[in-house]
Amino acid sequence: MEVKSMMNTATTLMIGLVFIMISVVAAEDPYRFFEWHVTYGNISPLGVEQQGILINGKFPGPDIYSVTNDNLIINVFNQLDEPFLISWSGIENLRNSFQDGVYGTTCPIPPGKNYTYALHVKDQIGSFYYFPSLGFHKAAGGFGGIRISTRPLIPVPFPPPADDYTVLIGDWYKTNHKDLRAKLDNGGKLPLPDGILINGRSSGATIITFEPGKTYRLRISNVGLQNSLNFRIQNHAMKLVEVEGRHTLQNVFSSLDVHLGQSYSVLVTADQPAKDYYIVVSSRFTPKVLTTTGVLHYSNYSGPVSGLIQAAPTLLSWSFNQARAIRTNLTANGPRPNPQGSFHYGMINITRTIRLANSAGQIEGKQRYAVNSASFYPADTPLKLADYFKIDGVYEPGSISDTPIKGGLFPATSVMQVDYRAFVEVVFENWEASVQSWHLDGYSFFVVGMELGKWSPASRKAYNLNDAVSRCTVQVYPKSWTAIYISLDNVGMWNLRSESWERQYLGQQLYMRVYTNSTSLRDEYLIPKNALLCGRATGRHTALL
Ligand SMILES: *[C@@H]1O[C@H](CO)[C@@H](O)[C@H](O)[C@H]1NC(C)=O
Ligand SMILES: *[C@@H]1O[C@H](CO)[C@@H](O)[C@H](O)[C@H]1NC(C)=O
Ligand SMILES: *[C@@H]1O[C@H](CO)[C@@H](O)[C@H](O)[C@H]1NC(C)=O
Ligand SMILES: *[C@@H]1O[C@H](CO)[C@@H](O)[C@H](O)[C@H]1NC(C)=O
Ligand SMILES: *[C@@H]1O[C@H](CO)[C@@H](O)[C@H](O)[C@H]1NC(C)=O
């Protein structure tokens, strides 16, 4: 007993030493500090006053500006009447799923309390966003843009734009988030959204001002709840340059499908006669098309916006073609000075294939959604903390199958165990008639294939093993499949979820437990010193850290 506890102390000291060394290394990267106060406030984005969630008084919340490898220290004060968490879509939180801000990894911030996130945007560039992850708060706001710029001296594959705009688009309800949540809790489904917002505003607002002749970057993210959206600007072409941290082949599009949770950077040149132009956003793959417009203003024009509002494409083949045209520029730099094509993902052997099918159904008379028939219910304790403190019985690894199974939906706290450093193929199979959007936290993955119909091993012949785009959120078209490759290089508990907020809330999600038996801090960090503890982890001491 004595000897064992001494050994433990010695191990702890050694771990402590390594931790300090790692901290010193990380300390070379710059720090940026943020203090965020989350409150309710009155907003009326669709002309009707409603209660929104504001960050430092703003709706949408403030943008985070950062540079590759920055440490972002964000102290979030929850001044709402409900537990609250923010999650960071696309921020990989390398070795540190504790900071992910979803209920499977992080205890909610109680009302009146605060929690300081420490994010390290290690080896990342690009356009992302943050959002509130609990309790359907996303329906009330609390989201904002995140941009990670390339470090100075690393060439970017396009000239610096004259200005750079965050454009957050998303469908919206006039209904309070608590009422929407109650509808789902009571077994119902959500109605159609009431409208679409661009940067928190509806039709007619001026979103962007252009000076004639100059070129601008727009970072477009779909932060909505239910609908894929099409984005276009009257008479202006958009040159795609970046998708969720990847520099792309610079294809020109007249409109862009942005599925739930996705982010795109485009360059737009003010090369048209000085006038005001419509920015149009409309829902895709919906029986009833919702549309909103904003205004692109030319600085030397002072008249009304006019002209035709161009319709969105409607053919599924158009969408497939656009998706396949979104590819990596292999010679362009990413976050490092070496070209993005230097990682030859197409030459790595697959160690495991995981097939995931979404479905809808009922459990005990209530609407639910599932992955391989397992409908996710949260546990009483964050899964990551159960792992960390070795609390048994919170979840069962293997509670979800690797392949679609027949039969009805069943409740599960779905956790799929995968090995650290494995290279896996995941096939999303959508047998439903609605478009799906999937997001994986902690990672970006290669989108190797996307086709109409059922997937079979023969489908692999059509995979793009050369210049597929690497991203963190991907669509699966109705009655179609999408295949991705993931290099599992980030230990932790990572949420894989539907970005349809009704679907993820009602069970279409799971956690991937990327596991190693190594306890080295080179593989995974210790729990943060300031971690909030809850559920069965309440009172577990972190004093030795
Ligand atoms: C809450 O904020 C205070 C500073 O106002 C800070 O010292 C403390 O560490 C924060 N708490 C957590 C859990 O991060
Ligand atoms: C706006 O500026 C452009 C470029 O300088 C010029 O060609 C155009 O005539 C101007 N238009 C107006 C309405 O002032
Ligand atoms: C790819 O990036 C390089 C910069 O490294 C650029 O010169 C080239 O035009 C880009 N190619 C395409 C097709 O976008
Ligand atoms: C991949 O698998 C093939 C066949 O099993 C084998 O010949 C090859 O060496 C493997 N490649 C790598 C990089 O491991
Ligand atoms: C981890 O597992 C491997 C293979 O089972 C074993 O060889 C290794 O010693 C284990 N490492 C630790 C740190 O337990």
TrEMBL record:
Molecular-function GO terms, alphabetical: copper ion binding; oxidoreductase activity
Organism of provenance: Eutrema salsugineum
Annotated family: Belongs to the multicopper oxidase family.
Signal peptide segment: 1-27
Domain Plastocyanin-like: 38-151, 163-300, 380-517
InterPro entries assigned to the protein according to its UniProt record, in alphabetical order: Cu-oxidase-like_N, Cu-oxidase_2nd, Cu-oxidase_C, Cu-oxidase_fam, Cupredoxin
Name used for this protein in its record: Uncharacterized protein
Keywords, ordered alphabetically: Glycoprotein, Signal
Superkingdom of this protein's organism: Eukaryota
Keyword Endoplasmic reticulum part of the UniProt annotation: no
Keyword Glycoprotein applies: yes
